[in-house]
Amino acid sequence: SSASSASSSLTTSLIAVALSTNVVKLCDMNTGAASHILRGHEGPVTAVTWSKRNAHALFSAGRDGKIIAYDIRRSTPAIHFFDHANRARHEKAHTGMVTSLNQSECGLYLVSSGTDRQIRLWDTNTGLNTMTNFAPIQAEEIHHVTATLTEGSCYPGLLYLPTGHDISVYDSLSGTHLTDLSGHFGRVTSVQFVKDSLQMISASHDSTIQVWEPTWGEEDSNAITDAIYRDTWSSDEDDVT
Questions:
Q1: Most CB within 10 Å of its CB: which of 24, 44, 101, 175?
Q2: Category of 164 on φ-ψ map: left (φ > 0), alpha (ψ -120 to 50) or beta
Q3: pLDDT digit string (tens) for 65-118?
Q4: How does strand 34-38 pair with strand 188-193?
Q5: What's the whole-model pTM score?
Q6: Which residues fall within 8 angstroms of residue 67, CB to CB, at 6 or more apart?
Q7: Residue 181 and residue 29: Cα distance in Å, rounded?
Q8: Strand stretches in the chain, DSSP E
């Protein structure tokens, strides 16, 4: 089996690994032994992340369109299947493969995207789709990617989602598509913010890693959020190759 994603616990020595064999495996980094096998998916697992609010909980997403919440203390760990229509017995978060899964900084929200061209915002307290009206993803082809959310707030803020050669920027609370960041010549596969800085790093099939940061004039040097919303992000000229 192959791994597509991994997430380490903030409070224990456990690491969660998303596997192509339809399961999430928990491994103890101190001993190297597998401690749990989490089931519930009907296809390869594409993403996994530990809850930022509960040390015993984690979320997974898969090619089967499911997003599952687990409590590893239980004999049956799968405790909730997220449903895009908020129906109790429906188990699909997306009608296609889940391509990305992100959590807000304090763990109150999940944001997911899928090959159904939909982006969804989930309330982790209730497990419900917030029904935020996101603009559909416009990329010609949709692949599994690593997206990122702005940090520094309990609210999800801005979603940076690779879409083809560009990075699409969405307001996660309103669903508004704000802009597209261009600079790569190949498909963008991953974006990630640098902790405690305003820089974002992106990787692409064009074999480059680019560093992005907001730029603003002296008159609004303190208005960081305004600068972001005005599409003043630019790619660092010194790309790493």
A1: 24
A2: left
A3: 999 999 999 989 999 999 999 987 777 999 999 999 999 888 999 999 999 999
A4: unpaired
A5: 0.83
A6: 59, 60, 61, 81, 82, 93, 98, 101, 110, 112, 122
A7: 38
A8: 3-8, 14-19, 24-28, 34-38, 45-50, 57-62, 67-71, 78-81, 98-103, 109-114, 119-123, 128-129, 148-149, 158-163, 166-171, 177-181, 188-193, 200-204, 209-214, 233-235
